[in-house]
Amino acid sequence: MSSYDLSTNEQGITTAGHCEEPIQYNGTTLPWKDGTTGGVRDIQWNSEASFTTQPTFYDGSGDRPLFGDVLHADQHKGDVVCAYGATTGYGCGKIVDPAFDTYNVWNDRQVQGGDSGGPWFSSYDAYGTTISKVLCGGLDCGSVYGPVDNIFYEMNVDLMYDY
C-alpha cells in the first residue's frame, strides 16, 4: 500500500517483510528502508528518494482509493474482508480469529505463494497485508494477514489517504 515516512514525507510502498527486496513497483526499483523480515510483524517499507505514488491500492481490477483503515482492535470474528494477491487474484473471506498469533488475523480466504504483501480491505478501508496461508490437517484452510497496526507501529510510516 502507498505510504510515507512521517519524519521526511518520503513516499513508498509497504509489503510483507519476507518478500524479496528490492521490490519492483510500476517499473521503479524500491530498496528496503525499514521493517522486519518475519515473525508476528512481517512487514517492510520500500522507497527511494524521487519515488512518488498515489493514495491507492490495487484490488485486482484497478487502483482503488484509500479513504481509511481499520485497526486490529476493530477487526472482529465474522467480519468479511477482501484481498488481492498476485497469484490468486481478488477474493473475500470471513475473519476466523482476529487475534491469531497475537498480532495477526486468520481469515478463511485461501492464498498461495506470490500473494504475500497484497492488501486486505473492505470497501475503501485498509485492514492489512498478506503474510501466509494457513494449513489445517495438511490442507489449505485460510490465510494470515498482518493488520495495518503493523505498518504504524513497526516503522515510522503512515498510509497515504485520498481525502
Detailed description of the structure:
By secondary structure, this protein is mostly beta strands. It has two domains: 2-62 and 151-159, no CATH class; 63-148, Trypsin-like serine proteases (Thrombin, subunit H), CATH 2.40.10. It is 4% helix and 51% strand. The chain is built from one helix and 16 strands. It has one helix at residues 149-154, and strands at residues 2-5, 11-15, 23-25, 28-30, 32-36, 43-47, 56-58, 63-65, 68-69, 80-85, 89-100, 104-107, 119-122, 125-136, 139-147, 157-159. Strands 10-11-12-15-14-13 form a six-stranded antiparallel barrel. The chain has a five-stranded antiparallel β-sheet with strand order 5-6-2-1-16. A two-stranded antiparallel ribbon has the order 3-4. A hairpin with a 3-residue loop joins strand 11 and strand 12. The radius of gyration is 14 Å and the shape is globular. It starts with a strand and ends with a strand.
In brief, what are we looking at here?
Helix content is 4%, strand content 51%. It is mainly beta.
Q: Under the CATH scheme, which class of the largest domain? A: Mainly Beta
Which CATH architecture of the largest domain would you pick? Beta Barrel
Question: How many domain units?
Answer: 2
* Low-confidence blocks of residues: none
Report the major sheet: 6 strands, antiparallel, barrel
Q: Percent of residues in helical segments?
A: under 10%
What is the mean predicted local confidence, pLDDT? Answer: 94
Please, how many helices?
A: 1
The count of DSSP E runs of length 2 or more, i.e. the number of strands, is 16
Annotated CATH topology of the largest domain: Thrombin, subunit H
Order of strands across the main sheet: 10-11-12-15-14-13
Molecular shape? globular
- Kindly name the structural category: mainly beta
Distance between the termini: 16 Å
Strand percentage, roughly?
over 45%
H and E order: EEEEEEEEEEEEEEEHE
Radius of gyration: 14 Å
Q: What is the CATH H-level superfamily of the largest domain?
A: Trypsin-like serine proteases
